User: What shape does this take?
Amino acid sequence: METFGASGGHRDVARPRIVFRDVIFSRTEHGRLKIKTTAQQEEERMKELEKKMKLYVAARDVCFSKRKEGVLDEEALLLTQQLLSSNPDFSTLWNYRREILMHLETVREEDDLQKIFESELSFLESCLKQKPKSYGSWHHRGWVSARMPRPDWARELSLCDRCLSLDELHCWDYRRVVVKMSGVAVDQELRFTDRLIGSNFSNYSSWHYRSTLLPLLHPESPEPPSPDHQPGRGSPPPSPQTNAHRVCEEQLLKEYELVQNAFFTDPNDQSAWFYYRWLLGRAEREDMISCVYVSREEERVAVGFSKPVHAQSVGLMLVLDGQPQRVEWRSVHPRLRHSPVWVCDLPPATISDIGNEHNLTVHWTEKHTHRDCALYNGRTESWCRDSATDQELFRSELSVEKTSVLQSELTSCNQLQELEPLNKWCLLTIILLMRALDPLGYEKETLAHFQTLKEVDSMRSAYYGDLCSKFMIENTILKMEYAEVRVFSISDKKLSTLCHLDQLLLVTHINLSSNELRRLPPQFSMLQCLEVGEL
Assistant: This one.
């Protein structure tokens, strides 16, 4: 573009560049046309890059040589700074830099160290501005802050606030370090998640962080046993860890309201739905011996645990009629090194006489718990166990208030589902609410919703099939135990997977026919009493 002056001359105000595929035309001030191809430009760029790479490699080699020789001086500190400024993900150089700083700690005064570390923090800020996702930079900043003579945790917390307000997810781990070192109160951090979630319901990391804070600030208190329910003979004492990861009911009800606001605002955002699933989750099962089974004919003892264990390393001891027994515990299948069911054979003729009565005790010494089992005369087998209904294994025990709130939540989700009939998150949450309230009563509706899920989210139909199979197996176990039988029948239900097989340890008859099972898993060996199987 040209302009003309009063003297009739002219000057260039701008020099337009016109690109035609592989050729670039640029005007000069003399009006002559020069042509430079992109291939030529690429060659020049590669030459410049090669030149920089040679300088970088030479500086790197000098650093490696200095480290090998044990040189820990300020020249090495400056050299690593230059290299890390261009590549903050070079972990070896961060390690070398820490070695230099630790050496300086031994030869410098406290005030000098404070200045060195403050300079290091400034350098780290420049690295993070260049590459905020650099794990090495965040880790090194935590290391530096922890070793500073006079750390400014308020400043570091403010830095985290700024980064997280920009949704820089890599800052979360560093924030946890700052919070721990500076002693920030849990309620203050919970209010911080309030702000982030309030400004952006899609902030998944904030929801997750909130799930780690709530059990600390509002833990669920273990309820004392009622006078009408006393532990039976052989029942283990209650574990203090049973409620360690749960939230008290009062706060839980408030969280339901908060998360409902989120998913009604944006039903297709998955962050709030995932958090809601966490709220509906059951408490972790306590470590316990859930079942002891003894067979007089086979002279065998089977022990069921609340989780997979390695019996040979957790300290399992069998006492028969007051005498410790030397037995060899083995898993029910060679591939299951950690298993919830373990068995052992008793010495020959130990309990074979049907006219004798025997008392067994299995001690889990690592967890300081045990379970007793009596084999009465005239009986060929005996067991002592907590049923799935006793353990509330497949649903949480609900108070009247919580039941009312969850029922209201179910009504709200049903209303949302009418507005958003193809929303998979809403459908899946409705299923979870139904299972929390009454898994057997809502069984028909649950199966219908699973069918809809497979249609609206066909890419995950196999996942929904496995989840549906899991819920049907749970319901069948509950029905079996309510009927007080040892027959497990779940034929022609399109089962795609088997689970909870440790709960079938005592089953004698099983019917899995006309399903979609391709093979039986190794866990099928947990059915230690099985006599008849229809597959």
